[in-house]
Amino acid sequence: MTSSEKPKTNWHLVVWPILVLWLAVSIYIFRSDWREAASVALPLFMVAAAFLVFVLNAIAGSIAQRRYELSVFDESTSHCSQCSRGEGPLHVIDYHWYLFLGAIVVQFGRPGKFCPSCARVRVDDMFRRTIWGSLFCPPITVWAWLQRRRILQRIQQS
User: Fold this and answer.
1) Beta-carbon contacts of residue 93 (< 8 Å; ≥ 6 apart)
2) How far apart, in whole angstroms, are the C-alpha atoms of residue 84 and residue 140?
3) Neighbour count for residue 102 (Cβ, 10 Å)
4) pLDDT tens track for 95-112
5) How many CA atoms lie within 13 A of 22 on its CB side?
6) Which of 38, 88, 90, 143 sees the fewest Cβ atoms within 10 Å?
7) What is the per-residue pLDDT across 19-37, written as a single tens digit (0 to 9) for each?
8) Nearest 5 degrees, angle CA 95-CA 64-CA 117?
9) Rounded to two decimals, what is the model's pTM?
10) Selection from 101, 152, 90, 89 nearest residue 126 by Cα
11) Cα separation of 135 and 70, whole Å?
């Protein structure tokens, strides 16, 4: 892969949403009960809108960077990350386990390229860790189960 394929910031996806949100905030402020406090409320809402756009772009950039790193990893590795076996099909596994801590969820894991047996063991291990780490958050458990099922079906099909 060349450096031109690396993820880059699309500044039009940063600037235009900020401007649109600023316009919407201005219209809302001047047509609501906030009109009297516009000198204080308008800058606060504008900063919050810009911060929201930057956070969402950072998340999107992080996802794009992760995909790029996985594609580079997929092309450069020719043996199992766990047992070093090189013959047979290898699968890139990017499955994480999660720890639910009330208001935040912490993600752990490391991607790898695995043979089918090592891939199943790794996915099952990450799923068990998610079950224990997110015992009090059933949505994370259900999501992890669905993701595990999808990965195992993909491995089984090939």
Assistant:
1) 111, 112, 113, 114, 119, 122, 123, 151
2) 32
3) 7
4) 777 788 776 677 777 777
5) 11
6) 88
7) 999 999 999 999 999 899 9
8) 25
9) 0.57
10) 152
11) 29
